[in-house]
Amino acid sequence: MRGLLGIAVLLLLAWAISEDRFRVPWRLVAAGVALQFALALLLLKFHPAAAAFLLLNDAVEALQKATNAGTGFVFGYLGGGPPPFAETEPVSTYLFAFAAGRLSIETAERNGRIFRMFHRETDREKVARNRDAIFDLHAAALEWLERYTFPAEREFGDIAHAREVADFFLDELLRNGTTTALIMGSVHAASVNALFQAAAARRLRLVAGKVMMDRNCPEYLRDTPASSYADAKALIARWHGKDRLGYAITPRFAPTSSPEQLEVAGTLAREHS
């Protein structure tokens, strides 16, 4: 009886929130409910049918295991295989959540910088247990960005270097069976142009864009709203929709693009949508 009551409540709820209660196809609803009852009787009372479904379940599980083994073999650690390094104690992954409620702010200092974490977690003990790991993780990520990522990106101002890396990177994609990719380029328009040229020569399906970044970054990588608009406009005109290529309008992060630059990005999107 409890199950029948649950079905009735669900049907009543669906009817109550329907946009047009007088056009509900009751015959179709009745047929669906009857089919559910028939399937339940078949599985509960007719043992060969239940056995057949169990065999089908075993076959699907075997296929899933084979798929996992194959992806682990082809892609290694990224595909579920064993990691090529010793695992240490994992840091907290309690980083992002989507919920309604009042935002609380946690503040901490790392390497002379003030970090703020906005959250809606109501369990104060959980926040206290994880806050230091979260701040340490983000401070380390920022340090990596400034020590390694930005200097490496600076080298793409040399067009010879940009072409060499594009050739190597795309050849590695093809060697590993990847024929479609979405790539974030550097801030240098010439390097993104070289990437598109290399992709066109290899007939790759590639979407890429010049990074837009006009604040909170080294001066040697900083562009302006006007220059990022002009560079993107020229690259779109040359490459977007050509063969198997597409252009992605690419602000790097919200903190590294001013409101004016984000507005420029929106203008580009409206002009080329």
Describe it.
The protein is mostly helical. It has 3 domains: 2-76, no CATH class; 104-153; 158-271, Alpha-Beta Barrel (TIM Barrel), CATH 3.20.20.140. Helix content is 56%, strand content 11%. The protein is built from 8 helices and 7 strands; from the N terminus they run H-H-H-E-E-H-H-E-H-E-E-H-E-E-H. The protein has helices at residues 2-16, 26-45, 47-75, 124-154, 159-175, 189-202, 225-239, 259-271; strands at residues 104-110, 113-119, 180-184, 205-209, 211-212, 245-247, 250-251. The strands form 3 sheets. A 3-stranded parallel sheet has the order 3-4-6, with helices on one face. Strand 3, helix 6 (189-202) and strand 4 form a beta-alpha-beta unit. Helix 5 (159-175) packs parallel to helix 6 (189-202). The protein is extended and about 75 Å long. The model has no long low-confidence stretch (mean pLDDT 89).
Concise synopsis of the structure shown:
This protein is mainly α and 273 residues long. Helices cover 56% and strands 11% of the residues. α2 (26-45) crosses α3 (47-75), α5 runs parallel beside α6 (189-202) and α7 (225-239) packs parallel to α8 (259-271).
CATH architectural designation of the largest domain: Alpha-Beta Barrel
Described by its quaternary structure, the protein is single chain
Query: What's the number of helices?
Result: 8
Main sheet makeup: 3 strands, parallel
- Please bin the fraction of helical residues: 55-70%
- Which strands sit side by side, in order, in the main sheet? 3-4-6
Tell me how many strands there are: 7
> Number of folding domains?
3
Question: What is the CATH class designation of the largest domain?
Answer: Alpha Beta
CATH homologous superfamily label of the largest domain = Metal-dependent hydrolases
Low-confidence stretches: none
Shape: extended
* Average pLDDT for all residues: 89
Question: Structural class of the helix and strand makeup?
Answer: mainly alpha
In N-to-C order, the SSE pattern is HHHEEHHEHEEHEEH
* CATH fold label of the largest domain: TIM Barrel
Distance between the termini: 55 Å
